[in-house]
Specification:
With 289 residues, this protein is an alpha+beta fold. Helices cover 18% and strands 32% of the residues. Strands 1, 2, 3, 4, 5, 6, 7, 8, 11, 12, 14 and 17 form a twelve-stranded mixed sheet that branches. Strands 9-20-19-15-16 form a five-stranded mixed sheet, with no helix packed on it. Strands 13-10-18 form a three-stranded antiparallel sheet, with no helix packed on it. It is globular. The relative contact order is 0.20. Bound molecules: manganese (II) ion. Manganese (II) ion binds next to loops. Manganese (II) ion (MN) binds next to loops.
């Protein structure tokens, strides 16, 4: 099942069309303060699937090209990310002072995971708004896993059971000496899309080609089989520190080929068995009061 959020609607993606399945959300429980630390749609996805299928049968297909796609997860509780999780990206990080700022780049087992602010999350239609045009700002394409079930200190062999699905993630990064979480948490610097592919439709996330182009030129091309810690190992590792909740997002790390973007660029991010998304880059708007 391919699920998207578009124009404030919930959609089921079929071929190049979207089917409006928003009425399926009416069965979600109504929450009262204090809100639970989950994304309600993701937390209840297994129970909603029949209603989503039923709505899809009634819906009139609308071309995907005509809608604005938002992040498939509306309310992620946290965005976890793996810093240097491909060997060749580790090597380029160690050899390029524009990436490492003369600090030692540690391998993921030493560096651990970091967290990005959930306020940085956008969908492809919103694009990336560059806030510091004077700083080097890089693209990083990553496979993103969406947690579907509460995961507290789960063993590697049971880790994948806790995934609701997958999408493409862009971990946009200002290079510099500050903490990762600061440089990567700028508004719009986490792009999730184009839709969520449920885990049952993507049984082997460990062998997917990923490609990122900027203005049509290929910058990153790799396969998730080259991850240092695979997705199951990442979930086991992360959940040994904090409890993963439905709707939490795990960015699995970027391969080699990271490079700068600037306002006016268009990124095209593709992951095999998920899909492709075009993400425009623009200058940030002036501050709002
Ligand atoms: Mn990254």
């Amino acid at each position: 099942m391919l699920l998207c959020r578009y124009d404030d609607r919930l959609g089921l993606v079929r071929n190049d069309d979207v089917l409006d399945v928003t009425p399926a959300l009416e069965t979600l429980p109504s929450y009262h303060y204090p809100l639970p630390p989950v994304d309600p749609l993701i937390a209840h996805l297994p129970a909603l699937r029949a209603a989503i299928e039923a709505e899809a049968k009634k819906a009139k297909p609308v071309p995907l090209k005509s809608v604005k796609l938002f992040s498939p997860v509306a309310n992620p509780g946290k965005v976890m990310a793996a810093p240097v999780n491909y060997k060749k990206h580790l090597e380029e990080g160690r050899s390029d002072p524009g990436i490492n700022f003369n600090r030692q780049v540690q391998e993921i087992r030493q560096a651990g995971c970091f967290l990005k602010a959930t306020s940085s999350v956008v969908g492809p239609s919103e694009g990336v708004a560059v806030r510091h045009p004077d700083r080097r700002t890089d693209h990083e394409i990553e496979l993103a896993a969406i947690i579907g079930k509460r995961a507290d200190r789960v063993p590697v062999e049971r880790a994948l059971e806790h995934i609701a699905g997958y999408c493409i993630g862009l971990d946009i990064t200002v290079r510099g000496p500050e903490e990762r979480s600061l440089r990567k948490s700028i508004d719009s610097y986490t792009v999730l899309g184009p839709w969520l592919v449920t885990a049952d439709a993507l049984p082997d996330p460990g062998n997917l080609n990923l490609t990122l182009k900027v203005n049509g030129e290929t910058r990153q091309q790799a396969n998730t089989r080259d991850l240092i810690l695979n997705i199951a190992e990442l979930i086991a590792f992360a959940s040994s520190y904090y409890t993963l909740m439905p709707g939490d997002v795990l960015l699995t790390g970027t391969p080699e080929g990271v490079g700068p973007i600037k306002a006016g660029d268009v990124m095209t991010a593709t992951i095999e068995q998920i899909g492709s998304m075009e993400v425009p880059v623009r200058a940030a708007d002036p501050p709002r009061g």
